[in-house]
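Key result, reporting period 2: structure in, sequence out.
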């Protein structure tokens, strides 16, 4: 019964993804030869067609990857991949904690290896073809090595702690593990701007007196205190531009990608920042964090229950080992199976996120002239070759940001 519903949701999910991709391709291709009226005079036909081609190319790679992922998932579960790994590691390693960590690590390694060619293809073929990639193979390998080292340094103690709690705290382990999870996330948020991000990029204080003055004035107007304005060498990896807030409490800072500074004028940057401030003012970030903690508690409670059910293991093609802990197995199966079911509620999260984006746009429009944000958005969509004509259904399902035309139309009327 469980196997059947797993297969049903998996197939239906792949079917839905294909259907949405087909719609997106049809819609983008159908609008390829005309710039939407709102953008005529701001975005050239050539640029619009480049965005269409970029979108179509990405849809194709994503679709292929989704198929490969689905096959890998079936291979690991119903076709016995995980059972094979579990049995062999069980013979090779005696120490229970080491054995379980090795099992988790080997599954992650399988996923990493399958994902690697896609990641290489995206960077050095797809992104390069459209002129976005700035990354050298050498930097790619360095990033990979650093990412791996970081994953081991942070992930290994976390996983070991959760496995230890599962084995030693009885039925209360879900609550303990949740507490560890929340603490870990807060620690990462705290360490990200000053410890983790600098491993990958250089951050230098913004060295533009006029812009600094303008940003400070905006902050004062919005009643916002801030410690630092930094510029990040995003151009090292990609031509895509962005700006973000990071850290919390006294340590929060604004980070501009150098690519963004190169492209937007002072008023546009101010409007983009006001949008980001809008997210703070409306407490979107805090709300998202609390929501994610509540959801993760739900996941831990469900995991605590299913990990005690034999059907959960056998239904996914694995036999729990008698007389030995099967906690790692439960964790792996859970993380493999859950997305098959939660995929269907993803649009809900994206809907909430789009609502937040409108609110932040509105806040920006209340602090800066809306036309500054409009022209910044036009430039950003143009530079990122984001399609202006997505399929509405595809967009409603996947997009965390509303389509450009709708955002700009609202700003124009606001
Ligand atoms: Zn936003």
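The corresponding designed sequence is given below.
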């Amino acid at each position: 019964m469980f196997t059947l519903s797993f297969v049903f949701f998996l197939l239906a999910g792949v079917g839905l993804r294909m259907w949405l991709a087909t719609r997106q391709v049809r819609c983008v291709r159908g609008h390829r030869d005309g710039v939407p009226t709102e953008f005529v005079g701001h975005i050239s036909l050539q640029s619009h067609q480049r965005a269409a081609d970029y979108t179509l190319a990405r849809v194709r790679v994503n679709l292929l990857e989704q198929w490969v992922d689905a096959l890998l998932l079936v291979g690991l579960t119903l076709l016995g991949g995980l059972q094979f790994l579990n049995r062999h590691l069980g013979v090779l390693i005696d120490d229970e904690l080491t054995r379980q960590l090795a099992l988790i690590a080997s599954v992650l390694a399988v996923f990493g290896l399958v994902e690697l060619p896609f990641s290489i293809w995206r960077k050095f073929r797809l992104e390069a073809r459209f002129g976005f990639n700035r990354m050298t193979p050498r930097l790619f390998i360095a990033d990979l090595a650093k990412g791996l080292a970081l994953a081991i340094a942070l992930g290994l103690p976390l996983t070991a702690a959760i496995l230890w709690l599962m084995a030693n705290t009885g039925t209360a382990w879900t609550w303990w593990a949740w507490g560890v999870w929340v603490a870990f996330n807060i620690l990462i948020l705290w360490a990200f701007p000053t410890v983790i991000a600098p491993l990958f990029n250089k951050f230098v204080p913004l060295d533009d007196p006029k812009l600094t003055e303008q940003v400070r004035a905006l902050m004062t107007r919005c009643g916002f205190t801030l410690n630092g304005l930094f510029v990040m060498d995003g151009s090292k990896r990609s031509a895509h531009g962005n700006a973000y807030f990071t850290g919390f409490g006294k340590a929060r800072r604004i980070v501009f990608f150098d690519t963004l500074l190169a492209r937007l004028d002072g008023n546009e940057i101010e409007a983009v920042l006001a949008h980001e401030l809008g997210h703070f003012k409306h407490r979107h970030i805090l709300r998202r964090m609390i929501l994610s903690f509540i959801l993760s508690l739900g996941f831990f409670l469900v995991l605590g229950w299913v990990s005690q059910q034999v059907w959960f293991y056998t239904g996914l093609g694995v036999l729990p080992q008698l007389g030995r802990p099967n906690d790692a197995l439960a964790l792996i199966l859970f993380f493999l199976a859950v997305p098959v079911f939660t995929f269907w509620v993803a649009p809900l999260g994206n809907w909430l996120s789009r609502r937040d984006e409108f609110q932040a746009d509105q806040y920006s429009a209340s602090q800066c002239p809306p036309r500054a944000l409009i022209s910044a958005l036009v430039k950003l969509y143009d530079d990122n070759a984001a399609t202006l004509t997505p399929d509405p259904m595809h967009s409603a399902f996947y997009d965390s940001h509303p389509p450009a035309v709708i955002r700009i139309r609202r700003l124009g009327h606001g």
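The two ends are 52 Å apart (CA to CA). The mean pLDDT is 92. This case is discussed further under Risks and Mitigation.
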